[in-house]
Design brief:
The chain folds into two domains: about 280 residues, Zn peptidases (Aminopeptidase); about 110 residues, Alpha-Beta Plaits (2-Layer Sandwich). The chain has twelve helices and 16 strands. Strand 3, helix 3 and strand 4 form a beta-alpha-beta unit. It binds (2S)-amino(hydroxy)ethanoic acid and manganese (II) ion (MN) (2 copies).
Length: about 425
C-alpha cells in the first residue's frame, strides 16, 4: 500500500543519548552500564519522575491512569487519535539501559524535534511508558499495557501479589503513581515501538534495522513442588520425597522438550527457590517458574502439554505433589502489514539495511496491536545480549532507529485507515 510520504524532521541524537545516560543513572548497577528499576520500586518511581519532568518540560498533556501507565500527548485529548510511540522504563533486576527505555526516550525525542520544527501535523503525537512491562516482580509481563487495552481489569492488576509479598495497588499508591486517568485507555490512531532486538539476529548478520512482523507466544507457569522436609544426614535415599530433585528434573525436561521441538521453541527455568533453602535440610517444597515461547501457537501448546505430562511422571516417581499456576499466557501476535510495510519502506529510503523478523521478547506493542494498527522497529543488540547489565547498542544504531521512528510516526499522521 503506497502511503503518502510523511514530512520529515531531524532528531537530535546527542540529546537522545544524554537522556538515555541520565535515566540510566537511576538504579545504576555499580561498575556496569546496566540498571535495576523493578516495577513500582523506589528506583522505578525516580525514573518515572524524571521522564514525567521531561514530558512536562515539553509542555505536553501528561496523564497517569489507574494502573500507573503514563501518556504524554501534544493534544489535550491524550492518546485519542494520536500516533503514539512508547515502551517501558521498568527493568529486570539485572537489566540493561536500553530495554524499554530507548522506545520511550526516542518517542520523546521525536516529539521534541517535531515541536521545534514547528510542523503542523494532521494528528497529535503521543508517547507512553506502560507499567510493569517486565513482569518479573509482579506477573504477568506487559501488565500495564494489557490493562490499557482492556485485557486485564484494573482490580485484578491492583490485587496482584509479588513474590516479595507486596501488592501492586499498595506499591502504586506508595510511589504516587496510582493515577486517575481511565484504564482501559484511549485508542490511538497507530502505535510504533522502537526497541533493541535483545537477540543476536541483526548483530550477527551485520544489519541495522529489524522490521518486526510480530511477537511470539509466551507461557509462564509457576510450579510449587511439595515433598517432605527431612534431615540431610539421617534420611535414607529410598525414603526421601525430595522436591528439589524433581525441580532439577523438570528443568532438564524443559530444555529437552525445547530441543526436541526445535524451530523457535525456547524454554527457561529462571527462578527456583527451595524452602527452607538450608544446607542440611531436604527441602519441604520448591517453587520454580517455567517460561516457554514459540512463534506458533500449536507448537507452544504442544510444549506445554509435554511439560505437563513429564512433570506428572516425575512427581509420581518421587512421591511429591505439584501445584501449578499460570503467571502469563499470550498467543503469538502479528503486526499490521500497513505499518510493517511503511517501516520497511522508510528504512530503505534512509538507506538502512533491514530484515523482517519476529520478536522473541514480549513487548507492550503486542498488547497495543489489539486496539490499533501497530508495528515495531528493532535496532541491534551487540552479541545479542540483554536482560544483562552488559546489554549494549551502538550509538549510531540508537540514532538511526530514532530517526526511523520519527519518519514512521510522521508518515502515519498523514494516513487514514
Ligand atoms: O519477558 C519478556 O519477554 C519481556 O522482557 N517482558
Ligand atoms: Mn522491553
Ligand atoms: Mn525486558
Amino acid at each position: 500500500m503506497d502511503l503518502p510520504h510523511g514530512s520529515s524532521i531531524s532528531i537530535n541524537g546527542a540529546r537522545l543519548l544524554e537522556r538515555i545516560a541520565e535515566l540510566a543513572q537511576i538504579g545504576a548497577i555499580e561498575n556496569t552500564q546496566g540498571c535495576s528499576r523493578l516495577a513500582f520500586s523506589d528506583a522505578d518511581r525516580e525514573g518515572r519522575d524524571l521522564v514525567v519532568t521531561w514530558m512536562h518540560d515539553l509542555g505536553l498533556a501528561v496523564t497517569t491512569d489507574t494502573v500507573g501507565n503514563v501518556v504524554a500527548s501534544t493534544s489535550d485529548d491524550g492518546a485519542s487519535g494520536a500516533v503514539m510511540a512508547g515502551s517501558h522504563i521498568d527493568t529486570v533486576g539485572t537489566g540493561g539501559r536500553y530495554d524499554g527505555n530507548l522506545g520511550v526516550l526516542a518517542g520523546l525525542e521525536v516529539i521534541e524535534a517535531t515541536l521545534a520544527a514547528g510542523i503542523d501535523l494532521q494528528r497529535p503525537l503521543a508517547v507512553a511508558f506502560f507499567s510493569n512491562e517486565e513482569g518479573s516482580r509482579y506477573p504477568p509481563d506487559m501488565m500495564g499495557s494489557l490493562a490499557y487495552v482492556g485485557g486485564m481489569s484494573v482490580e485484578s492488576v491492583l490485587n496482584v501479589e509479588g513474590a516479595d509479598g507486596t501488592v501492586v495497588g499498595e506499591e502504586l499508591e506508595r510511589i504516587g503513581y496510582r493515577g486517575s486517568a481511565p484504564c482501559p485507555g484511549a485508542i490511538p490512531h497507530a502505535y510504533v515501538e522502537l526497541h533493541i532486538e535483545q537477540g543476536p539476529v541483526l548483530d550477527q548478520a551485520g544489519l541495522q534495522i529489524g522490521v518486526v512482523e510480530g511477537v511470539q507466544g509466551i507461557s509462564w507457569t509457576e510450579l510449587v513442588i511439595t515433598g517432605q522436609s527431612n534431615h540431610a544426614g539421617t534420611t535414607p535415599m529410598a525414603l526421601r520425597r525430595d522436591s528439589m530433585v524433581v525441580a532439577g528434573q523438570v528443568t532438564v525436561a524443559a530444555r529437552a522438550i525445547a530441543l526436541e521441538l526445535g524451530g523457535s521453541q525456547v524454554a527457561t527455568v529462571g527462578s527456583l527457590t527451595p524452602h527452607p533453602n538450608l544446607v542440611n535440610v531436604v527441602p519441604a517444597h520448591t517453587t520454580m517458574t517455567v517460561d516457554l515461547r514459540n512463534t506458533d501457537e500449536k507448537s507452544l501448546q504442544l510444549a506445554e502439554d509435554q511439560l505437563r505430562q513429564r512433570t506428572a511422571e516425575l512427581a509420581e516417581a518421587e512421591g511429591v505433589e505439584i501445584n501449578s499456576r499460570t503467571l502469563a499466557r499470550f498467543e503469538p501476535v502479528e503486526f499490521d502489514d500497513r505499518v510493517v510495510d511503511r517501516i520497511e519502506q522508510l528504512a530503505t529510503q534512509r538507506g538502512l539495511s533491514t530484515k523482517r523478523m519476529p520478536s522473541g521478547a514480549g513487548h507492550d506493542a503486542q498488547m497495543m496491536a489489539r486496539i490499533c494498527p501497530t508495528g515495531m522497529i528493532f535496532v541491534p543488540s551487540v552479541d545479542g545480549v540483554s536482560h544483562n547489565p552488559a546489554e549494549h547498542t551502538d550509538e549510531e544504531d540508537l540514532i538511526a532507529g530514532t530517526q526511523l521512528l520519527a519518519d514512521t510516526l510522521l508518515a502515519l499522521t498523514e494516513v487514514a485507515w
